[in-house]
Amino acid sequence: MGLPAVAIPFLGKLILSTHTQPDTTWAGGGSPFAIGSKPLGMWLFVVSDALTFSTFLVIYTYARLSNPGWPSPFGPSSIAQATLMTFVLLTSSYTMALAVNAMKTGRRGRAVRMLLATVGLGLAFVGLHIAEWMHLIRVEGVTLAANPWNQPLFGATFFTLTGLHMAHVAAGVLYLAIVAAALSRNKLDAHDVETSGLYWHFVDLVWMFIFPLVYLMSAKL
Amino acid sequence: MAAPAGRPKVTNMNHGFLRRYLFSTDHKTIGLQYITLSIFAAFVGIALSVLMRFHLVYPESRWRLLETLWPDGAPGGVMTPELYLSLMTMHGTIMVFFLLTTVPQGGFGNYFLPLQIGAADMAFPRLNMLSFWTTFLSFVVLCAAFFVEGGAPLAGWTAYPPLSAVGQIAGPGQGLGQTLWVLSIALFCIASLMGAINFITTTLELRTRGMSLLRMPLTCWGWFTTAIISLFAFGVLLAGGVLLLLDREAGTSFFLPAGLMINDKLLANKGGSPLLFQHLFWFFGHPEVYIAILPGMGAVSTILATFSRKPVFGYRAMIWAMLIIGFLSFVVWGHHMFISGMSPYSSIAFSLLTVTVGVPSAIKTFNWLGTIWGGSLRLTTAMLFALGFVSVFISGGLTGLILGQPALDSYFHDTYFVVGHFHMIMGVATVFAAFAATFYWFPKMRGRMMNETLGRIHFYLTFIGVYAIFIPMHFAGIAGNPRRYADFAQFDFLKDLSFLHKATTHAAFFTAAVQLLFLFNFLWSWWKGPKAGQNPWHATTLEWTLPSPPPEENFGHNPPQVHRGPYDYSLPGAPKDFLMQQEER
């Protein structure tokens, strides 16, 4: 699931080896978007990945609209937990931005610390998310294929959508950890941190769709 | 950035066999790997189609070979309908993905995009290697379906649910075979996405001095546009594939409605819709047609100009036409679903958008004609195949306008009319462009010429052959002959068509045999062809400024300075009839 999402950061090393023309040779009508190959490559990955997520969201929308009696199982505690997860992820985007900024101003140590903070927050998000999954599976009896409300697509769309997102967060945690480790050994530069930041903010942005569409719209308050 | 400014990375040329030929990061080696894979896939696909055509006209004949190959699929040497369907599925999948998608972009694009824009390699060389090996793995996984229990899948290259989603119960190949099919396509999506990212970044970031976007050869525009389309299309198919896999393996119901009876068994699924998959599939599937043909359009433009000794007529219009085709490709998918239960209002919208594709296509066609108009034509094999491309593009394109009408499509859909149409426009046109590109670029890739006499014979026989195969299919379709049937003999209304089918089958045997000429020419020229110079065709683009074959580091420390557009042929007052892009005067 979400294999490119797993594969590409995993193979961060692959991406990190870019082929660059010497600066003097560039005159192809102005550097497009004024960014280097690596951030551009990540932007393009984000575009394709956004299409994959959009497809999942469209399917969720279809399933919800075409099945009357769609369940609303998320009580106040679930919503509170999802809100906390949202807060954690938003905060991690903030620390990520601080890391990118620190690298741009040449403060490598601070960048590493901010990246590690981002990794920590990402892990916290995954932990909270798994706890919530476990609650749904064990207490509410929702699985991928079945649930107590006889709406099989509820569990199917919920677990695929949030699962794909969680896989992205987990892959991102690994990716950022690799970047942080390399940075602390004086490898990589500001562009690499910026590239990893693009990925992380994208994953954060996806959650900003999932939180209202999946959780708030199915709240039982 | 990794490489220090002012010093281009020049790869060490002394690495061993593995790094050099198998796990190479050199875009030229990777391009050749893609081309090799495609040629192999093409011959597998041809063999499958020959078996199918044979069965269609000689359904009763016993053939020991079949029983040896497929003991369950051909007991007593007679092909079962299930085996026929599995051959059809594999033929379609192999040809669409591993020939038509792979050779124009992965093969020729990889080899020539960096050369034509004056770069030393692709932007992400190791990602490039990973793309190829993922594609290769995808091919292996697909072919493995032949050897597992139940054999290859039956659901066609479109893999429509519910039959593709319910497993073994729907037929022998619908068990593990279909699962492998889905896995293979998912891998292919990932490989194509990595390739698309690489192509776009390379085009935008690595152009040499003076190579502005509007000085790029149309080939580069073709690859660039194709990469953009791939970037948008494959992510959606990947999502569809993942969900189909979950339906098959995890018991979800994304594409399965309630109350479904399959082989007298009521399924427990509920809530989903098979139409959902059709939407996802064709949102990818229609752009896929242009992914196959746009690089060919670029190559044909370049080849027509080179062998007419004239600039491409309407260079900018050609670029706009490609970009507009690329955009329209994402808003016409519904024309594949006119008879799937679509609102007539949607049908009208999709129909209008579909016929709109005719406008940029006509711009391209008339510009090709304008390019050769009044030129001094050199009918090399490459030129002949490029002209043949224009011919089959028109023949296949016009029937597309017919199928774009919902009223007509409701009759023609699922008849041989559609089979004839898409083979002409997507299959033959793309393959002709690939042949043209092979004859055109072989001297650069190998440093030797291909045999022109053999090439011309191959062209004329293939040209006659493909028309003889696919034009009769249109008539069979008009007569109401359904597609995907394993046996026509039991239907009275098809009796009169048996002569047509026999002729088609024999034309197919003939055309398949003729392709061995190409294979022979390719292999013979690879080792024995006469040496080619640096620029045998007197062409203008940057790859012809390098030795043949180009050195591993391409331009090395001296990236060229580009001074002019890509098609400066027969310039008034020039000392010779062409000026290369890096020449000042």
Could you describe the 3D structure shown?
The complex is a heterodimer of chains A (221) and B (585). Chain A is mainly α and 221 residues long. Chain A has a domain at 79-221: Cytochrome c oxidase, subunit III, four-helix bundle (Four Helix Bundle (Hemerythrin (Met), subunit A), Up-down Bundle), CATH 1.20.120.80. In chain A, 74% of the residues lie in helices and 0% in strands. Chain A has helices spanning 3-10, 12-16, 37-66, 76-104, 108-140, 152-184, 190-215. In chain A, helix 1 runs parallel beside helix 6 (152-184), helix 3 runs parallel beside helix 7 (190-215) and helix 4 (76-104) packs antiparallel against helix 7. The model of chain A is unreliable at 1-16 and 20-30 (pLDDT under 50). In chain B, helix 6 runs antiparallel to helix 7, helix 7 runs antiparallel to helix 8 and helix 10 (315-328) packs antiparallel against helix 12 (358-372). Chain B is mainly α. Chain B has helices spanning 17-22, 27-57, 64-69, 81-100, 102-117, 125-144, 176-205, 218-249, 274-308, 315-328, 344-356, 358-372, 381-403, 406-412, 416-446, 452-478, 498-528, and strands at residues 261-262, 265-266. In chain B, strands 1-2 form a two-stranded antiparallel sheet. Chain B has a single domain, classed as Up-down Bundle (Cytochrome C Oxidase, Chain A), CATH 1.20.210.10. In chain B, a hairpin with a 2-residue loop joins strand 1 (261-262) and strand 2. Chain B has 17 helices and two strands. Chain B is globular, with a radius of gyration of 24 Å. Helices cover 61% and strands 1% of the residues of chain B. At the A-B interface, helix 1, helix 2, helix 3 and helix 6 of A face helix 6, helix 7 and helix 8 of B.
